[in-house]
Design a protein that fits this description.
Layout: H1 7-36, H2 38-58, H3 71-76, H4 81-101, H5 104-110, H6 117-141, H7 145-165, H8 168-184, H9 186-196, H10 201-228, H11 236-257, E1 260-262, E2 269-271
Antiparallel strand pairs: 1-2
Helix pairs in contact: 1-2, 1-6, 1-9, 4-9, 4-10, 4-11, 6-8, 7-8, 7-9, 7-11, 9-10
Length: 272
């Protein structure tokens, strides 16, 4: 639907729907709950869902139809080492970023910063929104998806350290960096998968999104197990940093084996 030179922006725009909804939904929900009660938050969710369904019904004929994908084709995308390693990076990044986000209130309370939890959630959400919306332009024009992912995961680790152990102002900056890099990391991964195997693009993108949210669930479960074992919440950023380090290690090994070429379109790059 778009030219290859705009692939990054297209992917980031599509992914922004999920990421912005997740990043800003929580703080908006908390704000509404504070003034009008939790039932108002649920009512708003129902209203937005019905509004979205109505919009899709009104424009149903405007979208191109696609053939249902056979399971053989879906599973065929997983036969490639590059694809599997990319999914591994996404999984471990999800464990680190979204998994830790589940316990942001506990982490801040353990640092006597519970009073600024709402502010930090807003910082995380705004960072996530900006990261999701802006990353596409960078991978189209300035850096390869491989380099972008390396930078984002590295900065994600910096965000964890700041949130867990820095003074309050730097911790707030760390929360912003965490949200920005966590949500920005999805588009380069999708871009790499689509560029590497266009034939399996739809299946690869679906698997990658699944890996992200599976990572979220695993990370939340690990955090719950840690707290249930009476581990102090202050140690949770260390666990997230370890998960991010595993993601970065897998990514760097993949990058060494991947053949990186300059893109024939625009000034962006692609990885094959």
């Amino acid at each position: 639907m778009v030219s290859p030179s705009q692939r990054g922006r297209a992917l980031s725009l599509v992914l922004a729907g999920l990421s912005v909804g997740t990043a800003l939904g929580v703080p908006f929900g908390l704000l509404i709950e504070a003034y009008f009660g939790w039932r108002s938050t649920i009512a708003l969710i129902v209203f937005l869902g019905l509004l979205s369904a109505f919009g899709l019904m009104m424009r149903a004929g405007a979208y191109p139809e696609s053939e249902p994908m056979a399971w053989r084709e879906r599973l065929g995308a997983l036969k490639d080492v590059f694809t599997l390693s990319t999914l591994g990076v996404t999984l471990w990044t999800g464990i680190a970023s979204l998994g830790l986000y589940t316990y942001i209130a506990e982490i801040l309370s353990s640092r006597a910063m519970g009073a600024v939890t709402d502010t930090f959630i807003w910082l995380w959400g705004i960072g996530g929104m900006l990261g999701a919306l802006l990353i596409g332009r960078f991978i189209d024009r300035y850096v390869t998806p491989i380099k972008a992912t390396s930078i984002l995961i590295s900065l994600l680790g910096v965000g964890f350290v700041l949130v867990g152990y820095a003074p309050i102002a730097l911790a707030g900056a760390g929360c912003f960096i965490w949200g920005l890099c966590g949500w920005a990391s999805m588009a380069p991964q999708q871009h790499a998968l689509v560029t590497h195997a266009p034939r399996h693009a739809a299946a690869s993108v679906a698997w990658n999104s699944s890996a992200n949210y599976l990572g979220s669930g695993i990370g939340a479960a690990l955090g719950s197990a840690a707290l249930g074992a009476h581990l102090a919440a202050a140690w949770l950023p260390v666990g997230a940093l370890m998960a991010a380090s595993i993601a970065l290690l897998i990514h760097l090994i993949k990058a060494r084996k991947a053949h990186v070429t300059e893109s024939p379109y625009g000034s962006g790059c692609s990885e094959l």
